[in-house]
Amino acid sequence: MLFRSVDDTKFSSSTGSTPADTDSDWMGSVFFGYAYGNGFRSELEVNHRSNDYDSQRGDVSSWGLFANGFYDFNTGTPWTPYIGAGLGGLRINYDDVATVQNSIVDDSDYRFAYQLIAGVSYPINDNLSLFGDARLMGPFGDPKVKTNSGLKEGTDYDNRSIMVGFRWSFGAPAKPAPTPVAQPQPAAPPPAQPQA
Q1: Checking phi first, is residue 178 left (phi over 0); if not, alpha (psi -120 to 50) or beta?
Q2: Strand order in the sheet with 16-19
Q3: What residues contact residue 67 under an 8 Å CB cut-off, 6+ apart?
Q4: What is the mean pLDDT of residues 125-133?
């Protein structure tokens, strides 16, 4: 699961601003959901992202909790494209980040957040599917943090990711029982001939 920030980010305060570009890094996600049998499904997702800054010291990470909804398109083939969206919350943590005028941010912020999802899945067997999707995630409003000197700063945390993984479905529909084959009936004996 590869993750990268969408745009060049920066830290801003009343005394100025400084760019803060991140390196690509890994993310992980665990989710539990339910498929309704009509193309719609829902899930509860917990995810974690972590990135180092490439233009200064420090790193940024987040924990997210999202409620997602999806629609699977029936193509008549094993390939199932899908789209989805989610709402939830993020805990965004900045660890030892050098920002405006070499101030240090070691602080966290909580934000409501959204994500938009598009992908495709392929069944491996009745229960296990392989999937790949692209996700655009971001908070509602810029995170606000404080420096070691107490100065308030704002920054960006918009992300996109490419996720590849496996989905296990419990209680997959049972295979239909084989249709019984009619057995041939023995021929009826010929009627008895009357005696002379």
Answers
A1: beta
A2: 16-19, 10-13, 152-154, 144-146
A3: 42, 43, 44, 45, 86, 87, 88
A4: 93
Contact 121, 80 (CB under 8 A): yes
Name residues whose C-beta falls within 8 Å of residue 161's C-beta, 6 or more positions apart in sequence: 1, 2, 3, 4, 27, 49, 134, 135, 137
Measured distance CA(39)–CA(83) in Å, rounded: 11
Integer Cα distance of 54 and 21 in angstroms? 6
Residue 2 pLDDT greater than 60, yes or no: no
- Average pLDDT value for residue range 139-154: 88
Query: What residues does 95 pair with on adjacent strands?
Result: 59
